[in-house]
Amino acid sequence: MNLNGKKLLVLGANPETANIVKVAQSLGVYAIVTDYNPDAPAKKVADKSYNIDAMDVDALYKMAINEKVDGVLVGVADPLIAPYQKLCERLNLPCYATKESVYAFTNKRCFKETCAKYGIEGVPEYSMEQLNKVKLPVIVKPADSNSGKGITLCRSRDELLEDIEKAKKESKTATVLLERYMETSDLSIYYTIVEGQPYLSSLSDRYTLRNNTKSTPICLGDVFPSKYYKEFIEREHPKYCKMIQDLGVKNGVLYISAFYEDGHFYVYDPGFRLQGGGFHLVLKAVNGFDQREMLVKMALSGSMQTEHFKDANDPLMHNNAAAVIWFLLKEGLIKKIEGLDYIRNHPDVSYVIERFAEGDEITLDMIGTERQVFLRIFMKSPNKKILRNVVQDFQNRLKVIGANGENLLMPSLNPDLIENDEGLNLSLKDKIVVISGGTKGVGRQAALKAAMLGANVVISGRDEKCAQQIVDESKMFSGSITFKKTDLHCTKDIESLFDFVDEKFGRLDGFINYAGITPASSLVECSEKLFDDVFSIDIKAAFFCCQNAIKLMRKSNGGSIVLVGSTHHRRGNKDRAAYACAKGALFTLSNHIARHYAVDKIRCNYLVMGWTPTDGELALRKSQGISEAKLREEAAKAIPMGRMTEADDIVPGMMYLLSDCSCMLTGSEFTLNGGELI
């Protein structure tokens, strides 16, 4: 199709719309942009621009007639879809929107009502007439706004009326929705409609940064395809196809945000236009078609039909894994950026969109909004395992350094979330878990993984700075992490830890005893102080933690205790005499609990952690003049599996022991050591 010289009127002129203009121009199209803002970004790249408000259909009609435009297209802006449809109708030009679809997809209230007719569930709501029954926190949003305007996460009943008024001001119809705050899996659903046939183009798992402010969660990334793909295709996809076809949509794109919880898909936001996050870039890189080109052609010819589209469109990404990864910044002045060139030139990266450069400043008013987004990376890899490793590599290399040498990068998407667990469906949803020594090493990783699987985790320790970093990182998860400063040498502190859990949650479902110290000393060299130090943490603290955990678990109808042990518990190396004895005592404690408290539905297992490069082990070896590289080389020769045990080997075992998948496993010696004791 030859589009050279064709005139296209584009409504709206935000940065995302500017990219549509550039694509149109690459096809030989003469692009005219209109927007009330004289300095809008798309105007800077347009062939011609007007300052006519895109909501003013009469003025647009006169201008379009005068310019003799061949087609009209709406940019990335929901409020402009209704005037776009009216203008096309008056000009008798192709339009992907119908009156019915505008009604259904541009007002959140109408959208949920339309979905309900087809059995598509919306996020549960509260009635405006019964505000006293609203459970906080709650999402307060205008029914017909876009770009997050007027949307508030209300955490205080005293502020609820104020937040409702704020939402009303952003709603043309003064209509406000009060939606349940969903702390569960988030999904992005994306359809391409061609000649009346809806095609699911992508289904992705969306991850967000949750905080304790009034701001709604900010996206950290999408991973394609979603782990819920099969369930969605079988149960939900036919409903969407029926709805789209009944609304008379012949061409276009439709983006829908949803949550997944307990087998239910709950929709909450539609977007009847290109998705602002750039999913079309993922589809172009992986599937080979460009929705922007298709929409431009539709505006000028009436059809989005593209050669080979049916074969190219694959929501499973042609067996690849893909992602859009976001990096956010804290408040501050950017002095230096490192690692960006490496990311740009990486073979798995298709596109990079950056918003800040050295010398730019992130101001306080940007925090809590998408204006604090520094970088979006569009990438694809052969599988999710490789994708995960690449994302981890990027996180290790990328640095944004502030004026005082501080790191301005916010916590980003945890690569563990990208793992495609096709085995056991491990879930710790709503379980209450305590982890002693949860601020560092394997304990830290266990806390984050448990929160990712839906648990509410309480970590104990003395390092408040490390603890706060973990708490911040966990805000993207469906579960949570809380820190309780605890000195495990003190039984009163231990009792206070479990009292805190009882007061906050009223029960306990799991306890991991990870805390321990590993000083080196042979039997003949061991001092009384070293012996007391080891036994104080490695067995006495564990004993009294278990005592308090069992008391609370009895009130909770059972639970799971994981005592993290060591291969030293059987005999011990010569230089670990006190440590070996303490771990042997811990093994006896595990069997004692398993035998005598099974009647209370309390399980206890002894997890044998193999030779692992923990912080303590590395520090000890360094004091002995042994580098980490040398340590790993030595371990590789001694362990049958040929390498040291890593946190990633141990944490899944911990999660299994905490989960209901191991409900009949107790009194075991659960060994994860690469065959070290064979």
TrEMBL record:
<keyword id="KW-0547">Nucleotide-binding</keyword>
<dbReference type="InterPro" id="IPR036291">
    <property type="entry name" value="NAD(P)-bd_dom_sf"/>
</dbReference>
<dbReference type="InterPro" id="IPR051122">
    <property type="entry name" value="SDR_DHRS6-like"/>
</dbReference>
<dbReference type="InterPro" id="IPR016185">
    <property type="entry name" value="PreATP-grasp_dom_sf"/>
</dbReference>
<dbReference type="InterPro" id="IPR002347">
    <property type="entry name" value="SDR_fam"/>
</dbReference>
<dbReference type="Pfam" id="PF02786">
    <property type="entry name" value="CPSase_L_D2"/>
</dbReference>
<protein>
    <submittedName>
        <fullName>NAD(P)-dependent dehydrogenase, short-chain alcohol dehydrogenase family</fullName>
    </submittedName>
</protein>
<feature type="coiled-coil region">
    <location>
        <begin position="157"/>
        <end position="184"/>
    </location>
</feature>
<keyword id="KW-0175">Coiled coil</keyword>
<dbReference type="GO" id="GO:0046872">
    <property type="term" value="F:metal ion binding"/>
</dbReference>
<dbReference type="GO" id="GO:0016491">
    <property type="term" value="F:oxidoreductase activity"/>
</dbReference>
<dbReference type="InterPro" id="IPR013815">
    <property type="entry name" value="ATP_grasp_subdomain_1"/>
</dbReference>
<dbReference type="GO" id="GO:0005524">
    <property type="term" value="F:ATP binding"/>
</dbReference>
<dbReference type="InterPro" id="IPR005479">
    <property type="entry name" value="CPAse_ATP-bd"/>
</dbReference>
<dbReference type="Pfam" id="PF13561">
    <property type="entry name" value="adh_short_C2"/>
</dbReference>
<comment type="similarity">
    <text>Belongs to the short-chain dehydrogenases/reductases (SDR) family.</text>
</comment>
<dbReference type="InterPro" id="IPR011761">
    <property type="entry name" value="ATP-grasp"/>
</dbReference>
<keyword id="KW-0560">Oxidoreductase</keyword>
<keyword id="KW-0067">ATP-binding</keyword>
<feature type="domain" description="ATP-grasp">
    <location>
        <begin position="112"/>
        <end position="300"/>
    </location>
</feature>
<dbReference type="InterPro" id="IPR020904">
    <property type="entry name" value="Sc_DH/Rdtase_CS"/>
</dbReference>
